[in-house]
Specification:
This protein is of the alpha+beta class. It is built from 4 helices and 5 strands; from the N terminus they run E-H-H-E-E-E-H-E-H. The protein is 37% helix and 20% strand.
Length: 137
């Protein structure tokens, strides 16, 4: 079952976040701090949403567009579904975002082939808008 997380889920969110971090591309660049992730989730529950499956999660926030404040953009901050329920999590996130924003931006930190996840997003109606790069400074 997919459901929206609440403050009661914070310990589980932190555990899932730690597991996600261990396989995320950011793990070699950024260390995981449980207290920081918990604070991030607390804030997201106030200004965004986190949805849970049995073993996955997706978290979003909504902000005004930098180009036109009459338009809001929902941005996915994390999305991990090792339980195979990614499509259900995506649909829950899209439904929530459609009531609050006109654009949903999804990211990808998939450790596997980028083509696989890119094709998955395209099949769901998403278009690529660029790439992200990171540098330790």
């Amino acid at each position: 079952m997919i459901r929206q997380a609440t403050a009661a889920d914070l310990p589980r969110l932190v555990a899932l976040g730690a597991a996600f971090h261990r396989q995320d591309r950011w793990s070699g660049t950024l260390t995981f701090d449980a207290a920081s992730f918990r604070v991030t989730c607390e804030r997201m529950l106030e200004v965004g949403a986190i949805f849970l499956s049995d073993g996955g999660l997706i978290g979003l926030v909504v902000n005004p567009s930098i180009y036109n404040h009459a338009t809001s953009v929902a941005s996915e901050l994390f999305f991990w579904a090792p339980d195979g329920r990614g499509d259900e999590l995506r649909k829950a996130a899209e439904q929530w975002a459609s009531e609050r924003a006109s654009v949903l931006v999804m990211g990808c930190h998939e450790p596997g082939p980028v083509e696989r996840i890119s094709n998955w997003y395209r099949r769901k109606g998403y278009a690529p808008i660029g790439r992200q790069f990171a540098k330790v400074i």
